[in-house]
Specification:
The complex is a heterodimer of chains A (about 100) and B (about 500). Chain A is mainly alpha-helical and about 100 residues long. Chain A has helices at about 5-15, 20-40, 75, and strands spanning about 85, 85-90. Chain A has a domain at about 5-45. Helices cover about 35% and strands about 5% of the residues of chain A. The longest helix of chain A has 18 residues, at about 20-40. Chain A is flat and about 55 Å long. The model of chain A has no long low-confidence stretch (mean pLDDT about 95). Chain B has a single domain, classed as Amidase signature (AS) enzymes. The radius of gyration of chain B is 21 Å and the shape is globular.
Chain lengths: ~100, ~500
């Protein structure tokens, strides 16, 4: 599965990371090296093997639906890049 | 004092041979003298350390001290510390001062330990050399032309150079064991889930695990006693009961079966390093252990499997860094899309971006089955290899790394060759097992480590074997000859 510069552009868009045009060739080469290394996996016989998401085969633990956290909005907002009236500020989304 | 083990410091504090304040000042002085050269610490706050030491001395005086009260410890800069910068080695978090403590930090506070500072690391724990740190690499105290290993390189270098008696690290694919081996200290990656991950910046959530880094196995046991245990705030933390990890240290190795995987002694292993490991295994044999050859037939799948699973999980975890709620934000974003994409371009370093891209690809529509699902299946095969071995042996042993510390810059231009450095450590994380690295010799004046791999929740056995090894050897007592004039 060889990867092209256009693939990197669409992955970068999905990952919301800008890759500048002048970096595209190098980044594509690096990612291609990594993917060709991991492609060794395609030869492995994994028929009928159950995928393993957790090394202890643990499943998500449930707890009672109770509020356990206190409201610390001021502390959280104090470390944000831009806030106003208790809201997080971002550039205008809707014209 | 700076050459004492944690156990000796505990004794000295309880016998009033020195106060925690004197002790803390001695380490702060050592940091002051060496950190400009070795770059082990990202953040040191001497005033808060002294205050904590004074408080510990008061607790000692009033009889309310606990076992480790007053012992200074350095923490990897991946653990959130309320009011103290937690950068994770990244520009993305260079301005991040957490509003809360990680559970691990809280546990050390409750114990009365003094937080000496936050140690250098590869950005978001992605790396095997510390060269991926936004703050520049920490250097190896044994040879400052060489890397200390990574990602917990700052912690390893700090302990090796006597800037801290002990430190914490995290290990997603070898990040405690490999730097411990390169810096000649003892490091333990516990079983997945043994130590809470709450407040530990996430890299790959099904692999990440925190553990102790110190001079001796005994010290690692003392620290793990503080760290281990269920945390309701981390739903993946284990509920298994926590033993006193020092209790089994003195047990005899008579009859203990040690498995040696043929795949870990192949052509990739440096000959002199292999010699050190053979000698170390002979020591264990002399103490009564039985060496048996075993096989991990799916070993060749380890690196490809890891480099799908870890980047996939990283791409998901690191999506939280959006320039909106905390951390870095790019200048003058023109719109929301520009804010996201430029914040992430500028805030992340090259290796982190590569792994996010690889992970995004592996999880994207049309490729999920071929990559991520396939890797999860291979992961089960890799774990099963270990479980099959443990039918016949009690622990597994081999080298921690293919050779001693490599030179700065030697592998930083070639990510794939850097990945091969972790060939012996990655499988332990994929399988969720505990693993240790113990100093086992010097090659060209640089330390190498013996890796011990245990069964799930078998930390006590590993610590026992490591302690018995350290009773018979003095590799863990050797210290780098630091020429202060030369390196500063």
């Amino acid at each position: 599965m060889s990867i092209e510069q256009s693939d990197i552009q669409s992955i970068a868009e999905l990952a919301r990371i800008r890759v500048r045009d002048d970096q595209l060739e190098e980044v594509t080469g690096r990612i291609r090296d990594i993917l060709s290394m991991v492609d060794q996996l395609q030869a492995a016989d994994t028929a009928n093997v159950e995928p393993m998401a957790n090394p202890l085969d643990a499943t998500a633990r449930l707890r009672a639906d109770e509020v356990t956290e206190t409201n610390r909005r001021d502390a959280f907002q104090a470390i944000a890049p831009a806030v106003e009236n208790g809201l997080y500020l971002v550039p205008k989304v809707i014209e | 004092m700076i050459n004492h083990t944690v156990a000796q410091l505990m004794h000295g504090l309880s016998e009033k041979q020195f106060s925690s304040e004197e002790l803390t000042r001695a380490f702060l002085d050592r940091i002051e003298a060496l950190n400009g050269s070795l770059n082990s610490f990202i953040t040191v706050d001497p005033d808060s350390a002294i205050n904590a030491a004074r408080k510990a001395d008061e607790q000692r005086a009033s009889g309310t001290a606990r076992a480790l009260t007053g012992v200074p410890v350095a923490h990897k800069d991946i653990f959130c510390t309320a009011g103290m910068k937690t950068s994770c080695g990244s520009r993305m978090l260079d301005n991040f001062v957490p509003p809360y403590d990680a559970t691990l930090i809280q546990r050390f506070h409750e114990q009365g330990c003094v937080l000496l500072g936050k140690t250098n690391m590869d950005e978001f724990a992605m790396g095997s050399s510390n060269e991926n740190s936004f703050y520049g690499p920490a250097l190896n105290p044994w040879n400052t032309q060489c890397v200390p290993g990574g990602s917990s390189g700052g912690s390893a270098a700090a302990v090796a150079a006597g800037m801290a008696p002990a430190a914490t690290g995290t290990d997603t694919g070898g990040s405690i064991r490999q730097p411990a081996a390169f810096c000649g200290i003892t490091g333990l990656k516990p079983t997945y889930g043994r130590v809470s991950r709450l407040g530990m910046v996430a890299f790959a959530s099904s692999l990440d695990q925190a553990g102790p880094m110190a001079r001796t196995a005994e010290d690692c046991a003392l620290l793990l006693n503080v760290m281990a245990g269920h945390d309701p705030g981390d739903s993946t933390s284990a509920t298994e009961s926590v033993p006193d990890y020092t209790a089994a240290l003195e047990g005899s190795l008579e009859g203990l079966r040690i498995g040696l995987p043929s795949q870990y002694f192949g052509s990739g292993l440096d000959a002199q390093t292999g010699q050190c490991i053979e000698e170390a295994l002979k020591v264990l044999e002399q103490r009564g252990a039985i060496l048996k050859e075993v096989s991990l037939p799916h070993s060749d799948l380890t690196i490809p499997t890891y480099y799908i699973v870890a980047p996939a999980e990283a791409s998901t975890n690191l999506s939280r860094f959006d320039g909106v709620r905390y951390g870095y934000r790019c200048e003058n974003p023109v719109d929301l899309h520009d804010l996201y994409t430029r914040t992430r371009e500028e805030g992340f370093g090259d290796e982190v971006k590569r792994r996010i891209l690889v992970g995004t690809y592996a999880l994207s529509a049309g490729y999920y089955d071929a990559y991520y699902r396939k890797a999860q299946q291979a992961r089960r095969l890799i774990r099963q290899d270990f479980l099959d071995c443990f039918e016949n042996v009690d622990i597994i042993a081999g080298p921690t790394t293919p050779g001693p510390a490599f030179a700065l810059g030697a592998k930083s231009d070639d990510p794939v060759s850097m990945y091969l450095e972790d060939v012996y450590t990655l499988a332990v994380n994929l399988a969720g097992l505990p693993g240790m690295s113990v100093p086992a010799g010097l090659v060209d004046g640089k330390p190498v480590g013996l890796q011990l791999i245990g069964q799930h929740f078998g930390e006590s056995t590993l610590l026992n074997v490591a302690h018995q090894f350290q009773l018979a050897t003095d590799w863990h007592l050797q210290q780098p000859q630091l020429n202060l004039g030369e390196i500063s």
